[in-house]
Structure formats: C-alpha cells, structure tokens
Amino acid sequence: MPYSSNVKFPRFMMHFSYAGQAYAGVQLNASAKIDSVQSVVERALYHFQPSQHPLRFGVSSRTDRGVHALHNTGTFDWIAPIDITTLVQPLNAYLTEKNEQVRILRIHPISPQFHFRRHCLGRKYVYRLGFLQKHEFTDVNTDIPFLRKKQRFLLRDMTPATYNLFEKDFITYIEPPYDLDAFRKGIEVFQGQHNFSAFTNSQGRLNMAMERRCPVKTMRLNFVEGEPMVPLMESSSLHSSMRVYNLVFEAEAFLYKLIRRITGTLVHIAKGQMTTQDVLDRFACPPDYYDSPYPTTLKPHGLFLHEVKYNEQDFLNPPLFRPDDVDDDVLMEIQDDDEDDEELDSKIMSVR
C-alpha cells in the first residue's frame, strides 16, 4: 500500500493466518496459476465494499509459496459505511464458504503515518524439521516396471511426508545419514550480526537492490525439541522412528528465502557436505559465493511465520521513520519469483 500522510479514508491493520500450501505465496503474482493470499483477502474485503472503489492491501511479510503463517499483518484503507472492525466473523464466514485456507484474527484502526513494514519491530519464524532415524521407502521392487522407471524419484521424494495426510505440508523431513551435533554447531555460527547476501539467491539480491535493503542482519536462532502435529501419529507405520525439532529464527527482517537457505546449509553441514568454515567464508566475502551450488533451498513444508511484532502504542502514534526509504509503489511491484523452489535436489537427499 502506498504510504501517504494525506489519506482521505480511515486506515486499518488486519492480522491474519493462512495455510501456505494452498497458495502461490502471499503477494499478488499475475503469472501464478493459483491464487495468492493477498488476492483472497482482497476478494473477501470487496465482498463487503463497493467494487468501484479501489482497494489495495499491503502485506508486511511476503512469505514464499508453501510457507504458512500463524500471524501475518497487512494494511488497507476502508471506505464502505460498514464498521470494518465488526466484520471479522463475517469475513471468516465468507472465507469458509469459499473453502479458503485463510482466517482473519483481528482488525483495528491505525494512524495514516503508521507503516506496516518500517514500524515492525521484528519477525519470528519456526521451521518444523523431522529427523528420520532410518531410510523410508527405499526397498523398491524393481521387478515392477513402473517402480523401476521411477526408482530414482522414489528415493528422493517418497518419504512419510508423501503419505501422512496430517504432516505432509507441515514438516520437512531430513533423512539419514546426518550428524545432529554438527547441525547444532552450525546454528551457533549463524547467531548474531552477519552479511547474509551469500545466503539469498539472485532474485533476493535483485530485490535488495530495488528496495535498497541492507544484507546485514542480526539473527537469533534456537533449536528446541518439538512434537508431531498429531500426537497419535507417533504409533503410525507412516511415522516410524522420527524426532521432531523446531528451528526458531528471530530478526527484524529477513532476505528472500534466507531461512530456507540457512536451514539448507545446516542440513549440508549435518551431512558433511559443508563446514562451519564454509559459512564463515561466505560471511567474509559474499560475492565469491554468489554462483556456488551451495547452499540449496530447503522445501517450504513446515516453515511457519509465527509472529510479526509491533509496539501497540505505535499503531495510533507512530514514530517517524527515515524519509529516504524506498517508496511502497516500488515495493508493491516486486514479485518474488518462486519458480526455483525445486532447487532442492539430490545435493541434500542423495548423500545417504
């Protein structure tokens, strides 16, 4: 949404959640074959507002395709006579009727001077990782022509995630061999302030240039034991011997695909494909590694935007921000190209 101090209509913030597997990311993308979260929210708002009035919904955190959100935020101007703060339940009823995987949590007024990104204090993501204790579905009967032809794909993709309906979109599986202690040591290298430009991709670096974003971020990571989405699945044959961990990321902001590529790096370290020194080298001289095949981008399954943090007092009385920040018209034109999500290839899964 364009920032303007001369807003003619009341401005509001929406807090919402969504299941990312159903959508082509958050931001509008004309080339996508399926809806974005933003287009779904805008249609719901138009249902209660005359369509002849333009409505622009700006999202604070532009998550990738397949990434979920327990809490994301966006802002919009509301010009219908209906009190928008009373429409949370009707909006959710509309979304439910349309079988959308989006839910509205809260709507409240904000100052025209409040900016949904620049006044954000930080973001928290949680990555659910399932560390398998043994190989799954690798004993393929090659006497069956179909399986003989598809065997190399079965070895890479036919994990319990393919079959467990309650987990398949909400966890990323890591198959052995791996060294969990090496994974933990890798986490410590990423703690603190670093230049992360070598850990985004070419699209991310283009976005940085267009948005004039600094690649230096202060990151806090935490690795804690988790649990299956459905506890009863622990006894399922499709959920054999596995340990679930939550990898928690906190920072003011993140570069494009940064979390998935950092986690991919940690998996490479756990599998002996990279070392902690490789990470330090990428921090020291990022351009030397822009064309490196490592790290790869881990799948989005199991990555959740957990929280977008604000000071509640800033909603109506926001502090000033830098006047030289890039204009939102530029921000809204930037589309995250997610076509390389299949970049996760045999580099991670083939070392067994």
Automatic annotation (TrEMBL):
- Domain annotation Pseudouridine synthase I TruA alpha/beta: ranges: 189-311
Record the organism: Rotaria magnacalcarata
Example GO biological process: tRNA pseudouridine synthesis
Task: Output the superkingdom of the source species.
Answer: Eukaryota
Annotated InterPro entries = PsdUridine_synth_cat_dom_sf, PsdUridine_synth_TruA, PsdUridine_synth_TruA_a/b_dom, PsdUridine_synth_TruA_C, TruA/RsuA/RluB/E/F_N
Which family does the UniProt entry place this protein in? Belongs to the tRNA pseudouridine synthase TruA family.
Please state what class of enzyme this protein is.
isomerase
Q: Which terms are listed as keywords in the entry?
A: Isomerase, tRNA processing
Instruction: From the Swiss-Prot or TrEMBL record, give the protein name.
Output: tRNA pseudouridine synthase
- Which EC number(s) does UniProt give? 5.4.99.12
Q: Which reaction does it catalyse?
A: uridine(38/39/40) in tRNA = pseudouridine(38/39/40) in tRNA
